[in-house]
Amino acid sequence: MFLKMLTEKFTNVSSLKRDLQRALHIISEADRIIIGVGAGLSAAAGLHYDGPEFENAFADFISRYGITDLYSSGFYPFETPEEYWACWARHIQFIRFTPPAMPLYKQLLQLVQDKDYHVISTNVDGQLLKAGFDPKRLFEVQGDYGYLQCAHRCHDTLYDNRLLVKQMVEQTSNCHIPSQLVPVCPRCGGNMAVHVRVDGYFVEDEAWHQAQERYEQALQEVCEGGKTVLLELGVGYNTPGIIRFPFEQLAATLRNVTLIRVNSLQSQPMTSRLDHNHFIGLSTDAATAMHAWLPHG
């Protein structure tokens, strides 16, 4: 039994190594790369919504409310806006403003910077911009923690929240912020919200629509020919209709397209129409893949 398990492990490692090498060859020969980024990329980069760092940073909220992770804290039914924004401010500071550009994101840029690339991302942590990706080649579909909007979308202006978040965090006491720091919509006087898509009030401003148009133009160019790689990194099933399913459909339909999916838990395709020539499923995380693809030493 032990020998069988050892053999299977060796076989899997060897197979992954071959697939990584094949993927790198296809990437190197591509005319363009469309990158799909999901939460798994930030997790592989070291941004974690739970664990020791979270527990240390949110010890008071964990003790008081019993929250278990950063994601679920965003849905906690706080009784007052002072509590709500105290938690959200620390949340934003912890994920959006405190972390520098993580090395894995810089490595991804290094991999594609000499290519005709475009990125679509469901992440809201700002890492792609921090790493130096061209904003005009980036479509952040789900928003950005660094901005506030009217909670009821009475208008489409976004508001940079860096200074306000800093003030909230510094003035939090007993899991509350001072009432005067609670943000109020400057137009309607109602509640403000973090610019993250959670309901039908998400603001899609002019910049969002321009980014969408540029991304759709990039997809149109894929249909017009040239070797294209769809490089999908850490995309799961939370919002599969944004990246995962469309990427599969393109790779199954167009003969000039290869989908390379990097996902340690969910690397297999949903459709049987994808064949070996147009799909590589890498059952590993993006950090391992990037280590194999880039020179290091």
Structural class: alpha/beta
> How many domains, in number, for the residues?
2
* Spatial shape: globular
CATH architecture of the largest domain, by name, is 3-Layer(aba) Sandwich
What would the average pLDDT be, to the nearest integer? 94
- What is the highest CATH level, the class of the largest domain? Alpha Beta
SSE succession: HEHHHHHHEHEEEHEHEHEEH
| Alpha carbon gap, first and last residue | 38 Å
Main β-sheet description: 6 strands, parallel
C-alpha Rg (nearest Å):
21 Å
Please give the number of β-strands. Answer: 9
Helix content: 40-55%
* Count of alpha/pi helices: 12
Q: Please, what is the CATH homologous superfamily of the largest domain?
A: TPP-binding domain
Strand content range: 15-25%
- Please name the CATH topology of the largest domain: Rossmann fold
Strand order of the largest sheet: 3-2-1-7-8-9
Residue ranges: pLDDT <50 for 5 or more in a row? 2-11
What do you see in this structure?
The chain is an alpha/beta fold and 297 residues long. It has two domains: 158 residues, Rossmann fold (3-Layer(aba) Sandwich), CATH 3.40.50; 100 residues, SIR2/SIRT2 'Small Domain' (2-Layer Sandwich), CATH 3.30.1600. 43% of the residues lie in helices and 15% in strands. The strands form two sheets. The chain has a six-stranded parallel β-sheet with strand order 3-2-1-7-8-9, with helices on both faces. The chain is globular, with a radius of gyration of 21 Å. The two termini are 38 Å apart. The N terminus is likely disordered.
